Amino acid sequence: MIQNITHQDFLRQNLISDDTWNKSQCDWEILKSIGIDYEKHREEYNNAANIFAQSIQKFHKVHSVRWRVKDAEHLLEKIVRKCAKQEEKYKNISCDNYREIVTDLIGIRALHLFKEDCFEIDGDLKNIGSTIEDPIVYLREGDSDEKFISYGFIKKYHPAGYRSVHYVFSTSILNQQFVIELQVRTIFEEGWSEIDHRVRYPNFSDDQLVSYFLGIFNRMAGTADEMGSFVIGLTNAHQEHQSQLNEYKAQLDKITTEKEQTLLAMDETIAKLDNTKSEEKSEIVTELKNEFEKLKSTEILGDTLKKLVFNDPLEKYREDLNRISSVQNSFNKLLAFNDPLEKYREDLNRISSVQNSFNKLLAFNDPLEKYREDLNRISSVQNSFNKLLTVNDPLEKYRKDLNHLSSIQNAIDKLKFNDPFKKE
Fold it and tell me: pTM value?
């Protein structure tokens, strides 16, 4: 209850600094009186919001409707911050005029499935009330604005990529005048904005990394909207193409019937020709030629219709398809930001290329494949033989003495002294 809150409690609970309060030049007693008056009438605002929301829910293109009535403390906090920014229309706000100055005491969101639905909703809204401000469309850089401009919207680009159409209505409900702020947006945009608000505020409003990934999320929501538009366009094109096929089939059936009738008439003419005198034949021949011309024209028309059947039903959506492809490519590039391996990417790619070449080399046809089993068996025998050669030698411990004796024997053999007792 505003009646029981103190000035200092209000500033603390709403995170309003002394500097902001001083800049606002607000009078606490006037501010408090606004809050007390608003709380007295808040139930009336709830009833008005409910009735207005129900009327919008009946629109053909509206998927669902959400609404809220502003909390009293949030109302006062907004007034303080607007006054601190020196916004002109808040300069002399009071208990008598705050209902006209603050336009979002009632906030309603009309959600729709496909981007193009907002234009039909715009037409429905014009039938239920008048706006006190020109409607504004918030776009992201790169969005098409031509159709919105043709419908009389004021375009603005939102720095966070926010997309929505905003209306401010003044309408009479239950014999009272209410100002209502209405936002019209897609379900995907609603999901992104809710998550963005929940994550970003109040702790991550200045965090660049969080903002960056929320920006990626925003583009994903935008791509989802583009895909939704493409899918509905595709189904419409399919239905239109099927309708054309049915129409062409009916015409082909008609031509076939006419062709059969023409051939029958030709048969009758030829029969008459056989049974008539020669002076009458020239007229019959002329009639026969006419019948042939009719047959020829039906064949030409049939060929034309067959060509029409094969027209590309997606031709008029080709530009949208190309744009979706471009968005997807940009999104893929966006996901590749700040690659920690970027400076090693060239080396990694080269290593990958060498590895692929090596893998291909290993996979070539081995000319010795049919001899592989024999070669393996020979290799196995060779290994066994090598092991056999390394068995423990039984003379190992005498090897040194034997080598020594062998060395002595070699030395003796080298001595070639003359034997004095050797007989000649």
Answer: 0.59
